[in-house]
Amino acid sequence: MSDCVNSIGVDVGGTKIAAGVVTDGGQVLARERVATGSKAGYESVIRQIAELARNVAQQAGLPLGSVRAVGLGMAGQIEGGTGIVHHAVNLFAERDIPLGPMLSEALGLPVTVDNDVRASTLGEYLFGLPGRPASFLNVFAGTGVGSGFVDRGRLLRGAANSACEIGHHSIDWQGLACGCGSRGCLELYAGGLGVARQAREAMASDPGTLLWLLCERDPGRVDGRMVATAAGRGDVTAAGVIERAGQALGAGLANAANLLNPEVLMLGGGLMKLGESFRKAALETFQSRALATVRRSVRLEASRLSDDAGIVGAASLWRVGPDGTIA
Amino acid sequence: MSDCVNSIGVDVGGTKIAAGVVTDGGQVLARERVATGSKAGYESVIRQIAELARNVAQQAGLPLGSVRAVGLGMAGQIEGGTGIVHHAVNLFAERDIPLGPMLSEALGLPVTVDNDVRASTLGEYLFGLPGRPASFLNVFAGTGVGSGFVDRGRLLRGAANSACEIGHHSIDWQGLACGCGSRGCLELYAGGLGVARQAREAMASDPGTLLWLLCERDPGRVDGRMVATAAGRGDVTAAGVIERAGQALGAGLANAANLLNPEVLMLGGGLMKLGESFRKAALETFQSRALATVRRSVRLEASRLSDDAGIVGAASLWRVGPDGTIA
User: Fold this and answer.
1) What is the pTM of this model?
2) Which of B258, B263, B266 is the mutation pick for testing A, counting most A CBs within 10 A?
3) What is the CATH number of domain B130-303?
4) In the CATH scheme, what is the code of domain B6-122+309-319?
5) Which parts of chain A have pLDDT scores under 70?
6) Interchain contact, B163 vs A259, CB within 8 Å
7) Per the count of CB atoms within 10 A, which of A75, A285, B33, B244 is most buried?
8) Overall fold of domain A6-116
C-alpha cells in the first residue's frame, strides 16, 4: 500500500508483456510479466493486459479504482491521442485496433498508448537522469534500434507520432535492402537481427568459429547471446561481428546527434548485453564521427532504469500533453 | 518610408553579404549586396555590415534609430545568446569573435546572430508558408547542405546551438573521408562541392563529355552551373552526375524525415538551379526511402522566399527566445 498516487505501466512486446504499479515518484511497487499470447488475436492480448493490470494492483494492495491511469508502450505506429494502434507488426495481424478505448472500457480507467521507446525515454528522462537536461536523446538497441527525444521538456512526436525512427535511418544508402523499402538501415547492422545476420555471414567463411558448435550447426539458431558467448570464450570471428555492429551503431549515434545536438545521449537496450566491446566500439565510433561541437556538448549515459524503463515510462504517459509537453 | 516596425536582416556569406530592411510582415523595403571582404580581417567585415545596415535604412527612408533590431545569419558555430562567433571557417581565420556585441556598439541597436540556415528556416516558416505547420524541416542545398527545424513553434537549437547539421550526417558510413572527421557525409555527394567532385570523377572516364570543353580542359574550374549547362545541352555524363547527386540528397531527406517526422519538408538552395531532374531525383528517392507513415504525413514544398529567405529570416531573429520559442 502506498500513500502517493499510482499509475500502471505496461510494456507490450512481441514475446512478453510486463506490467507494474508505479508511484508518481517513479518507484515500482509491484510487477508481473507474461508471455504475449498474440497468436490468439488482439482481443486475447487486451484481456491479458487487463488481467495483468488487475494482478499488479492487487499485489500492491490497491483497489483498481484508486489508480490514476494506465499507460501502454508498444512497438508500432500508434495514434497518440486516441490510443488506436494503426500497425504493430510484431503483435497483431489486424490494423487500426482501438486498443486504448477497449482497455479503458475493460478497466474503467483512462488509458494512454504510445511507442515503446518513446515511453522508455520518458521514464529515463523523469526518473533515470539527475535533473532534466535541456535535450535528451535515448537510443535503444534491441532486436531493432529505436530512439526517443525530449527537447526542452517536450517529447518529439512528429506529424504522425512517428518521430525518432533511428533504426530506419540509412548509414549505407546503396547497401542492403531493408523490409521498410529503404536500403542500409541502421538496424540491419546494429540491431539484434543485424548481429545475427552478420554472424551467419561470418560463419560462412570461417568453418572453425565456435558459433558453429554453439548453434549445433544450424545457423538459423544464431542470436546475439550466442555471439556474445562465443566472443567471451575468445572466438575472434564472433568478436569481430560484435565490434562491427558496435561501430555501425556509433555511426548512427553520430548521425542522430549531428541532427539533434542533444545535451544527454543515453544508450540502452538488450544489445548492450553483448558486452563492453560493443559499447566501446559504439562510443569510439561516435566520438570520431560526431561534429566537434556536438561531441563536446554531449554527456553520454548508460540506461539507468534498465528493464524497468518500459513500465515506468508507460506509467508516466498521462503526464504527456498532445503536443508532447511533459508535466 | 513605412508605418510599421522594421528590422534589418543580414545574410553573411563567404562570397557576398546581403542586407535588407524588412517589415514585421516580412516585406523587404530595401536591399543591398556587396562582396565579402573577409581577407581584410573580421573588423573590416563588421565595418562592411554596419555600412550596409546604414545604407539600407537610408534607402528605405528610415532613421537608423527607428529600426527595432538587426539580425545576422552566417554559416558557422555561433553562440545564440551572446552573438559570439566561435568558428566560421568560410569567413574568419580567428575564433570566438564577439561579432554581435561589436556590431551592436557600432550601430547602437540590438543585434542577434545565428546560423544562416536556421535564420532562413525562420523566414520561410513565418512568411513563406501559409499558416504555421506543427513541424517544419527546411533543407538548403548550396555549396554545402544545411537544415533547420521548427517543432510546435520552437526552432531546434540543440545543446550548443548546433542542431540540424544534416550536411554532416553520413549516408555512407564507410565512404569518402570528410573534412569534419567523419565519412560519407551527405554534402560530399549532394552539395555543390560534391557535385563538382563527382563531375571531375566522371570526366576522368569520359574524354568526350562536354564538361571538358566548358571548363576549358581545367577540371578544377568545374562547378554546379557548368554541370547544369552541360546536362541542359544533352550531355549524358553531366546528367548522370546531377541525377546521382539528387538521389543522394533524397536519401538524406528520408533519413532526416524518419527522425523528425515533419509536417512540411521544404527544399531550397542554389543547387535547386541544377534543374528539374535534380529535384525529381531527390523527391523520388525520398518517396521510395522514407517510412510509409512519414511519407504519407509530409507535405513537400519548394522554397517560397528564395534568395530573400536569408535576410527576411535574419531580420526576424529578434522573435526567437533563448529556448527557440518563436514569438
Assistant:
1) 0.96
2) B258
3) 3.30.420.40
4) 3.30.420.40
5) 1-3
6) yes
7) A285
8) Nucleotidyltransferase; domain 5 (3.30.420)
